[in-house]
Predict the structure.
Amino acid sequence: MAVVGFLVHTGGGRAQSALAALDAMPELTTYGIHKDNVIVAVAEVASVKLDALLSVIKKIEGVIDVSLTSMNVEDEDPGAALSSEILDRP
Amino acid sequence: MATRREFIKGSAAAVALSVMGVPAFGAQGDTQADTWVKGVCRYCGTGCGVLIGVRDGRAVAIKGDPNNHNQGVLCQKGMLLVPVIYAKDRLVRPHIRKNGKSSPLEPVSWEEAMKFATDKFAQVLKEDGPNAVAYYGSGQALTEESYLANKIWKGGFKSNNVDGNPRLCMASAVGGYMSTFGKDEPMGTYDDLDNATCFFIIGSNTSEAHPVLFQRIAKRKQSSSEVRVIVADPRRTNTSRIADMHLSFKPGTDLALLNGMAHVIVRDEMDNYRFHGKYCTFQKGDDAVTFDDYKAFLQDYTPEKVAEITGLAADDIVKVAHTFAQSSATTSLWCMGINQRTRGVWANNLIHNLHLLTGHIGRPGATPLSLTGQPNACGGVRDVGALAHLLPAGRVIGNQQHRNEVEDYWGIPRGSIPDKMGLHTIALFEAMAEGKVKAVFIHCTNPAHTLPHLNKHTKGLQTAFVVQTEAFMSAETLKYADVAFPAAFWCETDGVYGCTERRYALTEQAIKPQGEARPCVNILMDFAKRLGIDEKFIPYKNAEDIWEEWRKFNEKGPYNFFGITRARLRKESGIKWPCPSETHPGTNLRYVRGKDPLVPANHPDPIFFYGKPNAKATVFLRPYAPPFETADAEYPFVLTTGRVIDQWHSATMTGTVPELQRAYPTNFVEINPEDAKKLGIRNGDKVELETRRDKMVLPAVVTDVCMPGLVFTPFFDKNLLVNKLLHDAVDAVSKEPEYKICATRVRKAS
């Protein structure tokens, strides 16, 4: 399971509602709304699911963009994550 | 007591909070790893700083470097770099093909592989001479590697056949800067993105190709209602979502658009006569002309005429010209859409023209800033001169004084470096196919995937003896390699990258190389010495020794890196040249008195274009010229290629990361809904593209990103090598191929 730190940029006065939506996601822990309506958050997610998680976050109303700041994969085996779907792709 | 996992979560939060300027949790940011090692992202030319977390000798974490220009932020690709190190398809042993191209690559010892490679090179050098060997390098190679290879080939083997993949991406930008300003590399930096009030983005999908810079532009746009963003691109890419104006011009007509903007600016007296009257000359070909001649030339580019050529509305051309000229500070950004063209240098010149006409140059936020595709095309190849016509630090092969300066510095007899330019990339691969170049050393690049007109140019790889340094078994070029040397990857070795904004930054070694992989500097040194290159000519113990020689190369010249010592690079998160002394902080604004250390403090003018003998930049009269291939009755669509956000180049790295691979598993073809309807194509259908070179079937994505008549495909997928479809016509000056435009048929495949 990877631990990923990131910033969620919000606009349109929707920082609070975006924060509530993020707080409802079980993979996430949030750390408040900061300057320029940026929300600090940390996700615990299998790294193979990170892209999907970010897609969901970007669709939350008021979310403009997501900036990644750190990622820890120390208890994952990245090499083992190379799935057969890649090796066998058409 | 907190668990380790809670510590890691706290650390991740602390890092993110620190990017926001919020101190939190004391020093917990350090608990994710035993040590954090400073480096540069391995992917695009943005050159984001990273910190690599190491625990028990293994890279386990990554975070953005808060002290580098990216201010702690990374894109998804960069954030997922650590797993790439441990990918299962890492090449970790030397391999050779013992019985010719049809025999398998077999693992052997380093000794056997090196002997096999150097025996063949020695034979070719002896029997066919130095022009029969070549080096094909990369904008991803470290500066020390490119400098060393350039020295070995040009000064050691006496072969100028040194070229590389920057020929395929940046050569036109080099030609543009050199011809307009007399010196390569941008005068501005990323700091300009924070000060611009108008962004003119043309031929760049910044959002997907340079996402961290795009976020910075978006942030700037959010910060002020005054900021305008213009995106000029035949495709309506993700970049245009922040645009106030999106100009979807017909592919290949950008020269007309740029001249049309110049026409409006001059016609409506929005040009800055005080600037261009003082600092510019006007030139048609090699002939000096007057401003009035230029005005007469622009009469062919009225908004109405340009509208006919480009398919844009005349009013939009006027509006964009006014916005460009009237802003308080305009920054232009461009990339492969401008460079990869048979008139790429001209297109670069025309962008510079707009800045010189309006005076949007040499002030914070006002600059023409060419974006770079690879992490070290600027530093590693352009600056060290690792191309067939170049020598280090802005010198050229064709200039005897330049050759002599380099020979003197390298301590070899004058006349050692041949006076004839080597072969540029396309000519090199043609010469390999013809048997004129018999042995090539390919370093850190994948030409069997990335060259245009692949069916033609892989013949060169099939014919010549190919030695390749490579980190990943999936590289298509390995199919043609006679020798494969396993290369240390990224933070498994140390070296310097130089990014778009003239910033040199060091990646320090964080971990040991995987398996038997070795740093490429060591591979090149061993290779050269076995071929008889004198140890005194390459007396280096490590990459640092090479850097020390390189930084002192041009102590008194305009390409000045003298103050960028290894010790500073270890301490600082990059330094922007010119940097003439160890106490100089680096340069944000070139050619500006008081900002650029190469402009004398007592210079009478605030701007000094010292690259030109007359100290004036050149406004070129460059007419519109169509691309090499246009759509016609036989091939009625235009095909263009490019990047997607989650894959990079030939995907040897990103293809090993499941989350990136899952986002974009294969190449596809984007087609406009109108065209799709006419052809009976729906989302996901198989579509055949057929050009004059080849045909290929790809899945369809029906979208209005492409305008009618245009189709787009990315090129990352080795199972669908779309570059087989492309022609290999090159720019007359830069010799860069026109990847961006070719004519194609489109039909639903059965």
Q: What stands out?
A: The interface with chain B takes residues 3-7, 9, 11, 29, 31, 34-36, 38, 40-42, 44, 47-51, 54, 64-65, 67-74, 76-79, 81-83, 85-86, 89-90 of chain A (CB under 8 Å).
